[in-house]
């Protein structure tokens, strides 16, 4: 339960950050307000001796986070993908949290698999390696199926991860409440909603059957996409705490030297990664939301292999259209269009001045477009855009958190492959294609057809609905005073007369023509 008992957990957190030297680094990187800094010091400095020591070979913040447990590590992973928030140096320090954490014993993994699948590991696999990658929630083993000899990846949840996560996320909720009370200005960022969103995402990661379903759905959506591959799950060898899938063979996306040695075109790979993400987000509304280098490989034939579907993003069709319009507005430097989209979507309160907002957006976009290709950044655009929207009263939209975060991650991957990549030029064809298919005349016809289908589905219910509701409406009307009833009758007569006159005029005009 969320309550004062979490103060002890927060004190332990502050003490660990203080003891490892991470407190000042984190507060400076996050540009924390004075009240939050003071509260952090109160929870940390006097109790530093209570903090976990951590691994002294790690950088301060990474050392503190790994010592505190899995939920903190997951938060660290998210922050590692946001150099626009925490700075490049700290983001680089946190990047090692992706898949290089200490593994748990292979014997324990074997026990988990046997309990989950119902058969001993030696009956299921002829080969079963020690951990080849260990992250905050699970670790992966390389194996070979006994029945058909296929090489597979076996993902196993860490022991006790569910209870540890529940304990930590409870403290996060308590901390979010404290932050909103200590710093009212932070309410615009909706920290409590952000924590709730984070909780829902990671709770999904704790059931590996859901990850298998995500991989299956993602594979169906992208079946016709060229230049990419998705490892498929093996359902009969998977369960809530175990996931078996095809082995993703290839060179890790982060191994630039290996990619060059194999003859791959790195700039082309960078462009394809960015376009893939935009296509999945805009076309499908369902995208891989953890596309860092640790989850990407390049196969021998040049295909980009995407795996680890623990975190997926989903956005509805209306939001996709808004997002595409905003991107296209910036690409075309049409700031009034971007402003209008924000107002129409309700992102900015309607009592604000739209033209003033458009001028503020111009101040965001022009410096970026005036830069050389290596400095054109969607991540920087988002950072500057948040500053402007804060001034105009826009609240953080939690449904876009994963989309925004993944955009920054994908940009980092693309730029590592091609430092001179022009994000706008690469993304423009995908955005234009989406707008052409979803915001033009064909889209209007398609929308009308869908509306007709919905009305058609409910049409058989209309007679029963009217028979049931009309007597109630008539009784309500009869209970009102005669004057209002006469006024309503006169109004209806006037409307009928007007409709008749309009009809006669239309017919006369048609005959004259």
UniProtKB/TrEMBL annotation:
Positions of the Protein kinase domain: 126-507
Query: Matching Pfam families, A to Z?
Result: ABC1
Q: Where are the transmembrane segments?
A: 491-512
Q: In which pathway does it act?
A: Cofactor biosynthesis; ubiquinone biosynthesis [regulation]
Which Gene Ontology biological process is one annotated for this entry?
A: ubiquinone biosynthetic process
Keyword annotations for this protein, in alphabetical order, are: ATP-binding, Cell inner membrane, Cell membrane, Kinase, Membrane, Nucleotide-binding, Transferase, Transmembrane, Transmembrane helix, Ubiquinone biosynthesis
Query: Where on the tree of life does the source sit, at the highest rank?
Result: Bacteria
List GO molecular-function terms, semicolon-separated.
ATP binding; protein kinase activity
Q: What PANTHER family does this protein map onto?
A: CHAPERONE-ACTIVITY OF BC1 COMPLEX CABC1 -RELATED, PROTEIN ACTIVITY OF BC1 COMPLEX KINASE 7, CHLOROPLASTIC
Concerning its family, UniProt says: Belongs to the protein kinase superfamily. ADCK protein kinase family.
| Protein name as it appears in the record | 2-octaprenylphenol hydroxylase
């Amino acid at each position: 339960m969320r309550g004062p008992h979490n103060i002890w957990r927060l004190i332990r957190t502050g003490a660990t950050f203080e003891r490892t030297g991470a407190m000042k680094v984190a507060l400076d990187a996050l540009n924390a307000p004075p009240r939050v800094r003071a509260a952090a010091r109160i929870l940390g400095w006097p109790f530093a001796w209570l903090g976990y020591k951590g691994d002294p070979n790690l950088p301060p913040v990474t050392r503190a986070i790994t010592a505190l447990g899995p939920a903190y590590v997951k938060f660290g992973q998210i922050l590692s993908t946001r150099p626009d928030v925490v700075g490049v140096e700290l983001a680089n320090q946190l990047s090692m949290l992706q898949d290089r954490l200490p593994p748990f014993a292979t014997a324990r993994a074997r026990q988990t698999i046997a309990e989950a699948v119902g058969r001993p590991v030696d009956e299921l696999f002829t080969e079963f390696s020690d951990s080849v990658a260990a992250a905050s929630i699970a670790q992966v083993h390389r194996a070979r199926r006994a029945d058909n000899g296929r090489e597979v990846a076996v993902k196993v949840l860490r022991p006790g991860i569910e209870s540890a996560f529940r304990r930590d996320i409870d403290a996060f909720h308590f901390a979010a409440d404290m932050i909103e009370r200590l710093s009212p200005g932070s309410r615009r960022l909706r920290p409590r909603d952000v924590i709730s969103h984070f909780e829902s995402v990671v709770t999904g990661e704790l059931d590996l059957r859901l990850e298998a379903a995500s991989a299956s759905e993602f594979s169906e959506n992208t079946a016709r996409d060229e230049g990419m591959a998705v490892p498929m799950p093996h359902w009969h060898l998977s369960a809530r705490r175990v996931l078996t899938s095809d082995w993703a063979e290839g060179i890790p996306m982060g191994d630039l030297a290996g990619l060059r040695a194999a003859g791959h075109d790195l700039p082309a790979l960078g462009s394809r990664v960015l376009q893939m993400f935009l296509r999945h987000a805009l076309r499908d509304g369902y995208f891989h939301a953890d596309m860092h280098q640790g989850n990407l490989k390049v196969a021998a034939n040049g295909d980009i292999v995407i795996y680890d579907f623990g975190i997926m993003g989903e956005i509805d069709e209306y939001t996709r259209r808004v997002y595409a319009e905003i991107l296209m507005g910036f690409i075309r430097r049409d700031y009034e269009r971007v402003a209008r989209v924000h107002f129409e979507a309700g992102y900015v309160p309607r009592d604000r001045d739209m033209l003033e907002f458009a001028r503020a957006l111009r101040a965001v976009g022009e410096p970026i477009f005036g830069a050389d290709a290596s400095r054109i950044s969607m991540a920087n655009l988002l950072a500057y855009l948040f500053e402007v929207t804060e001034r105009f009263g826009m609240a953080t939209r939690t449904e876009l958190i994963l989309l925004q975060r993944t955009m920054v991650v994908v940009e980092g991957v693309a730029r590592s492959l091609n430092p001179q990549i022009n994000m706008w030029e690469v993304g423009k064809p995908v955005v234009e294609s989406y707008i052409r298919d979803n915001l033009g005349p064909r889209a209007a016809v398609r929308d009308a057809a869908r509306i007709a289908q919905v009305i058609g589905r409910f049409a058989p219910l209309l007679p029963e609905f009217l028979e049931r509701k009309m007597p109630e409406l008539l009784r309500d009307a009869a209970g009102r005073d005669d004057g209002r009833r006469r006024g309503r009758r006169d109004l209806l007569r006037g409307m009928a007369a007007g409709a008749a006159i309009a009809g006669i005029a239309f017919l006369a005009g048609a005959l004259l023509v």
